Amino acid sequence: MTIHILTFSSLYPSASRPTHGVFVEHRLRKLVASGEVHSTVVCPVPWFFSSNARFGDYGRMAATPRKDVRHGIAVSYPRYPQLPKFGMNAAPYGMFLGVRRLVRTLHAEIGFQAIDAHYFYPDGVAAVMLGDALGLPVVITARGSDINLIPKFGAARKKILWAAAKAFHMVTVCQALKDEMDALGVDTSRVTVLRNGVDLDLFRPRDREAARAKHDCEGRTLVSVGHLIPRKGHDLIIKALPRLTATNLLIVGSGPERSALQQIGVSSGVAERVRFLGEVSQETLAELYSAADALVLASSREGWANVLLESMACGTPVVASNVWGTPEVVRVPEAGVLMQERTPDGVAAACERLFDNYPDRAHTRRYAEQFSWDNTTKGQLEVFGGAAASAATNQRRRMPETT
After folding, report:
1. Does pLDDT of 403 surpass 60?
2. In the structure, what pLDDT confidence band is assigned to residue 85 with cuts at 50, 70 and 90?
3. Could you tell me the domains of the chain?
4. Could you tell me the CA-to-CA distances from 44 to 47, 93, 98, 321 in Å, in that order?
5. pLDDT of residue 9
6. Which whole number is the average pLDDT over 309-323?
7. Are β-strands 45-46 and 169-172 bridged in parallel, bridged antiparallel, or unpaired?
8. How many Å apart are CA 351 and CA 397, to the nearest integer?
9. Is 27 helix (H, G, I), strand (E, B) or coil?
10. Is the Cβ–Cβ distance between 44 and 7 less than 8 Å?
């Protein structure tokens, strides 16, 4: 019997933001491909008055279509109010109010058996509100800063703990996040670690020389992938380049820090060795991994960084900061090297250690092959199977007795 779930998350790709939350889509596609689950996606989008490109991310959000079908999965993008001065505290309520009518209509048509929420705050809190309103069990997946950063704010922490207490089950993408939830006071007997996998067909070694020629890679090449925001640490990699002679850096991603990062390149005397590529397609990203000699991830916080496995699956080892779930990915020499310190010198020293004992790229690929989506999908089926059974039991309890 097919389980019908509502996948609820503001992290989901759209035609206007094709890479936004793509990791949620990847996991869901693998789950739906099992044939045992049908999902309808609701991705709430903050309302904004103009889709003009000059407004950047806000403009792209406004340009999001109201409905779409992506890879055979129906997606709705309802708008919700977001108040600038009170956004963080009010966001769960805004989300709930913005999607409530749509979700009720979809539930009447489809008959959901569970809600699959991604990102604990505000999405998970709003999802529990929906679950209460519809009488549905909620499964919340914690992904990173929703657990290792946002709970530092008292009001948000209270709402996260409220949602965790009411959720049917919870999932984390690494053991480190489960440990942090335990420290916050969450009942971790209802938490399962289901690590992200990697699409081994998409992210595979390409013709390396052809990829390097296509993307104008000369000499040793590093690639850094992620939103251009402070916690991703792109600045540390740029500042490390003076120590890494004859080494170039490709930065993939968009965000508010681009101008500041370009200025750091100038002030560090390495501007001619740094290229900003903006957002690229997943196919192009696989080519860039294949062309590069190493991926460098200098983040201050990560749950389970998908870029690490993507790079390894293309045969390219990584240099990464030793934070949160990252040591669970970079466990062996063929995977890459962990930084001893998250500083420009630490980045440079880790790169030098990697290149002094560079692994066979075929061995790096074989290491990544153990991280397929199969175990994650199996774990999800167990969780949602339990949720569906719980929903059926609760429904029988609510039915009036007949004589």
Report:
1. no
2. low
3. 3-197+373-398 (3.40.50.2000), 208-368 (3.40.50.2000)
4. 9, 12, 8, 32
5. 97
6. 97
7. unpaired
8. 60
9. helix
10. no
What pLDDT does residue 352 have?
Answer: 98
**CA angle centred on 145, ends 37 and 250, rounded to 5°:** 95
**Residues 6 or more apart whose Cβ sits within 8 Å of residue 73:** 28, 29, 32, 39, 40, 41
The span from the CA of 281 to the CA of 299, in Å, is 22
How far does CA 246 lie from the centroid of its chain? 33
**Amino acid at site 45:** V
Residue 327 has pLDDT above 50, yes or no: yes
pLDDT band, residue 394 (cuts 50/70/90): confident
Measured distance CA(253)–CA(147) in Å, rounded: 24
- Whose CA is closest to 196, among 177, 168, 222? 177
CA-CA distance, 64 to 78, in Å (whole number)? Answer: 9
| pLDDT reported for residue 400 | 55
Estimate the crossing angle of helix 282-291 against helix 306-313, to 10 degrees: 60
User: Beta strand 274-278 with 247-252: parallel, antiparallel or unpaired?
Assistant: parallel
The tokens for 94 are 């805004």
For 10-25, how does the pLDDT look when each residue is reduced to its tens digit (9 = 90+)? 999 999 999 899 999 9
Which position has the token pair 């870029």? Answer: 307
Cβ–Cβ contacts within 10 Å for residue 254, how many?
A: 18
- Quote the pLDDT of residue 86: 54
Strands of the sheet containing 220-225, edge to edge, are 274-278, 247-252, 220-225, 294-297, 318-320, 336-338
**For 199-257, how does the pLDDT look when each residue is reduced to its tens digit (9 = 90+)?**
999 999 999 999 999 999 999 999 999 999 999 999 999 999 999 999 999 999 999 99
Would you mind telling me the total number of residues written for the chain in this entry? Answer: 403
Percent of the chain with pLDDT over 70: 97
Burial 133-144 (b: 16+ CB within 10 A, else e): ebebbbbbbbbb
Confidence bin at 292 (pLDDT 50/70/90): very high
Q: Are 388 and 168 in contact (CB under 8 A)?
A: no
Nearest to 198 by CA among 22, 12, 394: 22
Picking from 140, 272, 255, 263, the residue whose alpha carbon sits closest to that of residue 218 is 272
